[in-house]
Structures are given as structure tokens and as C-alpha cells.
Amino acid sequence: MATYSLRLGPFGASLLLNRNRLSFGLNFARKPAASTPPARAGRFLHRFTLGDGTETDGPRDMRPALAALPLPEGMAGRRAIDLNPADGFWSQALAARGATVVAVTPIWSRADGEAPATHEPPDRWDDAFDQSVIGLASQVRRERVAIKDLTTERFGRFDLAICAGGLGRARCPIRLMQRLRELTAPDGTAFVVQSIAPDLGRYPSHLVAEYRGLSAPETWVFWRDTLERMAADAGFDHVSVAREMPDPAPPEPGRKLLLMRLG
Amino acid sequence: MSFRRIRLAGLEGMAFASRDGAALEFAASLGPLRRLLARMATKTGPGFTEAQPAAAAEATAGDALAALKQRIGAINWYHTIDLGNGLRTPGAFDHAPVLARYNLPASFAGQRVLDCATFDGYWAFEFERRGAREVVALDIEKVGDIDLPPRRRAAMSEAEKNHKVGAGFALCKEVLDSKVERKVCNLYDLSPGYAGMFDVVHLGDVLLHLADPILALQNLRSVTQGYALISDCFWPELDRYLPATVAEYYGGEGENAWWRPSEAALFRMVHDAGFRKIEVLSRLTYSERGYLSKMYHLVLKATP
pLDDT digits over A160-207, tens only? Predict the structure, then answer.
């Protein structure tokens, strides 16, 4: 690929030549306006109702997303895994439906075992999680495991798997998506709930993701089509978008919440 | 954000607009022109050698030379390596014409050097030639150890997955009478406990083939005592997403490419691995044998 570009202030021009295509483009990039900083999470990340009836003060109200996801109502006797559980919003929802839930936080350590430096401590949401599953504790087991130990040998396979926000926080979203597929039973269903940046889709011929770095609140930010392709490549035969809706607590303007159903 | 495809005078185009910007782009297929140029192009050019699989070995005389030519011809080569006596392996990539542009140190005298993902060993033998005290060349054991997409892995036979790699390295080591030691290790498993620490660690043209390039870089950093030389591909057309530092997802397709990073994304990954000082030694392009289009490379010197 040969590429030539010129930028004068907000205006740019580019000429790209690769094996099959010659492209010429003009673009204009406005300096983004200052945005309202996202609401900071206190004890809880999500806004939901605890077992004792109290409502949490979390900035992310995912209850509309929960309503939009085609989760089965009765899950008695079924196994579910919640990858990246945080304060337990999704684990609570699955347990309330009767499922036996394993809530797993993947740890992305190096080969020599050194744990990663993250922008929040790994036990940040432990207290909140314990509160969210009061009354449901017998159905819910919480674990933190190295990504290499997130295996079917250790956990078996699940009738339902959910990964909410985990792909954006993963050092390797490809690996996490592959694990999601492996942990989902052949006749099971997985759900992905992920904040996306539609703006990354402005050149649809490129399936891109933005790499923001390991110390950023979001390591990766995706475009919808990139996640769909990643899911298909991980081995899911059926990939569908259940809903694309406004992000309830967008980290920046223009973000959407993607709900994907995978099977 | 709004987006619309346009067709104008046989050209495909797209228009995009959002509150943060707008873009208009047109593209034309080069397929017919490329086919014509490919027919007209000779097999020499930037990055190519004159050697062909059968002509790589100029026959002078001798059964030994003929036998060596036969052994060379039986291997699928990645690197083009000068074996002397007019013999050069017919690799997909020839680094010799662009070697000076890597701006590498002229001497590695007294240093312990690690060459990761050595393949046929071009770089390992080059470091040895430049006086390294010890060179360790790391690579996987077999094809199945490559970061393969699940479906491709499932479709491969056990024989295909167990096919050993390293035949080219072994042949070159023998012919060159090299002291370079080849060790089997996946980059994802590399740690100081494996082979100790190194004054110089080299990684070339590997990151794009990895689903988890950041882990590989972190492990690389963990065995780096002096500095790392990281030369890998980047895609400058992704600069149009700036200030977003993007990588294009490729899903393990083609030549097993997973991520195609922009220069900025590659920089950020190297920084995140724990390298605090990163210098650009070179930006260069070269082509794979038989292809007209060039691949952009960044050569970095990264110090912990």
C-alpha cells in the first residue's frame, strides 16, 4: 500500500494505492467540543434494585438493555457464566431467573505471572457484588482467574454466557471472544453487551478498533461490524445484533450500546 | 453520523458526515491494470533478488553443491539468506537490499542477543556476523503452535498441525557453520526463567500475526536487559482515523494476519509493554517477492 497525505489544519487530502484500488479522499476534522465528563461510579457501577428493595446509585442504568436482551425467563437448572461481572448486575439478573451463575473476572497477567497494572484495583467491585447477590448467594460463585485458566476443563460449558463490557477492558478481546465461544455449550447462547463508537465505522472497508492502552478505562473501543466479525471468527455460527441503543452512561458523546446474540 | 455510498462516472465513493468532521472518498479498481502490469513486470524490483527457486544456486560443479541445491529447493523459504558459493535461498522476503536502512548498530560485540520468531534465521545470523557474543534464536516448534483462527485449526489435520518448522534454519546453520542456538518457545510463554536476560532482543515482522501482540511485547520486555529492536508492519492509511489510534482487525486471514496497526497504535502497544524510551530508527518499505505493492515497516529501538 502506498499512501500520500496532506493536512492543513482541519483539512486533509489523501491518495492511497494498494494492490487492487486507487483511492482519493478529502476530509475535514473538526476539533471536538469539550464534552461533559461521564458520571463517576461510586460504590456501584450499575443502577439497579438490590434484594432488599433499595436502588443503587450507579451511573450506568442497564435495565433497558436487560429488558431488550432476549434472556429466557425461567433458567432453573441451567448454568450461566458472567464474564466481567463488576458489581454483579448481570449475575443478579441471571440468578433471579433461577440460573446457577459463575461470575468470572479474567486477569491478564504476563507469562512470568506479573499481574497487570490496571486503572482500578481488581477487588474494586467485590463489596458491591456481594450486596447485589444477597439472597441469591447459593446460586452465584465469584472467581478471578488468569485468562489462560478460563477453560472448559476448569468451568465446563454453560447454557448461557454473557460478557458485558469485558471486551473493551481486555488486553486481548480476540482471546476473550474465543473463550466466550468455548465456554458456551453447543446449544447454548451467548450475549455481548458493549459500548461502541459508531464513528469508527466511517470507512466501512476497514474493520477497526481503537487501542487506547492498558491504563485507560477502556483498552479497546470497537465498531459494531468489527465485533460481529470477531464473534464469527471465534466460532459462533449465528451472530446477530439484538439491539443498538443509546449508551446509558456514555464515556464520550456519540457512543451506542451494542447488544449481540451469539449462538 | 451519516454515511452514504455514491457512484459517479464509474467510480465508487462514499460520503460521511458527523458533528466532528466529514469526508469524501472515491476509489477505482486496479484489477485490470494490475494484471497488465504483472504480465509486463519482470521478477526483479525493490526487495526482489535475481535468484529463482531453480536458479538460486549457480551451478559451478560438484555433487555436494548439487545436493545442497536440492536441499534448498525442498524448503519453503521465508528469508533470503546468502549461503556462499553463489547460493542464496529463494525467500519470500529479501532484507539484504534494505538492511542498511534498518540503521542497526554496526557491532553487537560482547552482547547476548535474542532473535524472536527467527524462522529461517536471517536476523540471527546477521547478529552473529556483527559480532554478538551469543545469539539465541527463538521460534515455535510446529505449525499448530501458530496463532490460528479456531475454524482453520479445526479444519487442519493432525499431520498438518504437527508439521515441524525450522528446516530452513537448520540448513543455514549447518552451511554457515553458525553457533546460533535455536530454542523452541512461543512468544506467549517467553519469560526470564526460560533463557535468562538479553542485552538486545529482536522482533521482526511478527506482531501482525499475533492475536495478542501486547502480551508478546510484554514478555519481550521481561527478558530485555539492554534494549529491544522491534521492526514491524504498520498501515499508514489508518492515520485518517487520528487522533484515534486504531488497528484494523483481520481475523487471522490471509497470511495469518490478526491486527494491522497504525503507527500510533503500534507505538502505544510498545509503550504499554513497559518500554519507556522508544526511538524510531527507520521507516522503510519493501515488497514481498512477486508483488508490486510495498509494506510499510517501522524500526524501533525500545529501552525499558
Answer: 999 999 999 999 999 999 999 999 999 999 999 999 999 999 998 899
**Residue A106 resides in a domain:** yes
Give the β-pairing of A21-29 and A140-146: unpaired
In a domain, A140, yes or no: yes
Q: Do A112 and B192 touch (CB under 8 A)?
A: yes
R_g of chain A computed on alpha carbons: 20
Q: Which three cell numbers stand for residue A237?
A: 455460527
Per-residue pLDDT tens over the stretch B5-54:
666 776 666 676 655 566 676 766 655 555 555 555 444 333 333 333 44
Ordered by where they begin, the domains of chain B are: 1-40 (no CATH), 93-303 (3.40.50.150)
Q: Give residue A26's domain range.
A: 1-30
| Chain A residues whose beta carbon lies within 8 Å of the beta carbon of residue B276 | none
Q: Mapping DSSP to helix (H, G, I), strand (E, B) and coil, where does residue A114 land?
A: coil
Q: What 3-state DSSP class applies to B55?
A: coil
Query: Do A118 and A8 sit in the same domain of this protein?
Result: no
Q: Chain A contact for B22, CB < 8 A?
A: yes
Question: Can you tell me the distance from the alpha carbon of B197 to that of B109, in angstroms, rounded to the nearest whole number?
Answer: 17
- Both A134 and A173 in one domain: the answer is yes
Question: Model-level pTM?
Answer: 0.85
- Paired sense of beta strands B246-253 and B257-261, if any: antiparallel
Distance from CA of B87 to the nearest CA of A (A): 31
| CATH of residue A114 | 3.40.50.150
ipTM score here?
0.86
Q: How far is A3 from chain B (nearest CA, A)?
A: 6
In-domain check, residue A136: yes
